[in-house]
Structures are given as structure tokens and as C-alpha cells.
Amino acid sequence: MPLTAYDLTGRTAFVTGAASGIGRATALLLAEAGATVHCADVHEKGLHETQTLIADADGTARTHLVDVTDRARLDAAVESAGALHIMAAVAGIMHSSPVLETRDEDLDRVLAVNFKGVLHACQAAARSMIDRGVKGSLVTMASGAVDAANPGLLCYSAAKAAVVQLTKTLAAELGPYSIRVNAVAPGWIRTPMTDRHDADLQQKAEAAMVRLSPLGRVGEPEDIAHAVLHLASDASSFTTGQILRPNGGVAMPW
User: Fold this and answer.
1) pLDDT averaged over 10-residue windows placed end to end, the chain, 254 residues
2) CB under 8 Å to 13, separation ≥6 — which residues?
3) What is the CATH number of the domain that holds 75?
């Protein structure tokens, strides 16, 4: 069992992007900490695999086949969760293209998921918390990409930078309701998103990240899940409007 400050027994969490990667690891850890976890994603098979993993570990999970770009369905799913204490808005997609070759439709698609999807999730969760008088925590998913120039990642980096500003603005607006809002900005994490390259290119990319990290390794989804748990729990009760950077020391901004 986690320490008392990390105990989520009796609380309800909602995790988007829960079918794989960071979202799945987050759902599993929040359930292990005692929360009832509502898992949302567009990938039905992976979603049910996550639910099974939680059940096998004696946790409690519900699933919602939801696209975060569909505001109405996302709102309905969040409302169906009842009194919500935690929102982990993890769902995201990747797109790579040089700036001069980036099309409007590419940018629109990434912004729809990586920024507006986070916005919609936070709006729905915050309204639920305010209406029910719940002291809650919203955790958004930014990226180490906001701290560096990344050739080819304009769409992704811009969307994640927008998430950072959303996080700070929401923290200022929701503080009077005792709702905390923080972001996690992961470095290179082994997930299906970073595994999109062929094996050789993947190996070279990871090796480059290992060389840049003082810890000499890349991250795993569980590394980020623990950051989310910290921000979701009472252990961070005096923390809001912050960016937590589990990146292996690759970036150390002021």
C-alpha cells in the first residue's frame, strides 16, 4: 500500500488515453493506490486489456470508448463517473513534418487531440467538481518538447506548449474552488508513440537520449505514472500551476 498521503481509497479518477503507454500505466497505478478508475480511449481492445489488468490486481475500473475530440461524448462519459476527484488528461497523438511542409489539416488534427482534447477533459472534470463541491486535481500531459527546439515537431510541440498555458490559467481560475491543476512534461519514454520508427532508427534515437541524460537511461511509462500519482494525491496538496519534468535530467529549465 502507498503512504497515507498517496492513498486514493474512496476517490474516483478519469484517465484519457488509457488503452496503452502512459495512460495505461497511470490507470493501473491510480487503481493500485485505491481509486476507482474510469478508463477512456478510442482503442477498444487496449481499453479492455487495461481494465482486465486492473481487475486482475484487485482494482476497480470502468471503460469508456470515447474520442477526446468529441466533446459531447466526453462530457457524457465524465458525468457518468459521478463525483470525480481526479482527471488525468493523457490522450495524445504524434505528427512529424518540417514547418514548411506542415499542412493546416496536420496542425488541426494534432491540436484537436493534444490541446482541445485536454481542454475538453479538464472543462468537463472541473464542472463536475465544482457542481459537487469536490476538492479535486487535474493533471495534464505536456512534454519535454516544450523546453527545446525540435525539428519536425511543430504541431506536437505547439499543442503541448498550449497545454502548459492552459494548465497555468486553469490553476489560477480553479484555485478558489480548491481544485489543483498541474502538468507533467515527460522526456523520452518508451511507449507506442516513441516506437513508431523502424527498429534501427528507434535504437539510435534512444541511444541519443541516453547520452543526454545524467541518469543514463530513457524513461518507462511507470516513471510518468508515479509523477501523475504525486500530483493527483494529497502529497501535492500545496502544488498547483506547476510543470513536473520527469525527463532524466535531459532538460533543466529554471
Assistant:
1) 84 98 98 98 98 98 98 98 98 96 97 98 98 98 93 96 98 98 95 69 82 92 98 98 96 88
2) 27, 30, 35, 36, 37, 38, 84, 85, 86, 87, 88, 232
3) 3.40.50.720
**What domain range is 231 assigned to?**
4-190+221-243
All three cell numbers of 222: 511507470
Q: Kindly state whether residue 9 falls inside one of the protein's structural domains.
A: yes
> Which of 16, 76, 3 is closest to 46 using CA atoms?
16
**pTM value?**
0.95
pLDDT in tens, 159-195: 999 999 999 999 999 999 999 999 999 999 988 777 6
Q: Where are the beta strands (DSSP E) in 35-188?
A: 36-41, 60-65, 86-89, 137-141, 180-184
Q: Give the span between the Cα atoms of 102 and 27, in whole angstroms.
A: 34
- Report if residue 133 sits inside a domain: yes
Active site residue 156: yes
Tens of pLDDT along 59-73?
Answer: 999 999 999 999 999
CB atoms within 10 A of CB 200: 8
Contact 13, 36 (CB under 8 A): yes
Considering 15, 156, 159, 246, which one is annotated as catalytic?
Answer: 156
253 is a domain residue: no
d(Cα 146, Cα 179) in Å, to the nearest integer? 24
In whole angstroms, give the CA distance from residue 73 to residue 66: 6
Q: Quote the cell numbers at residue 153.
A: 515537431
Where are any strands of DSSP class E within the chain?
A: 12-16, 36-41, 60-65, 86-89, 137-141, 180-184, 243-244
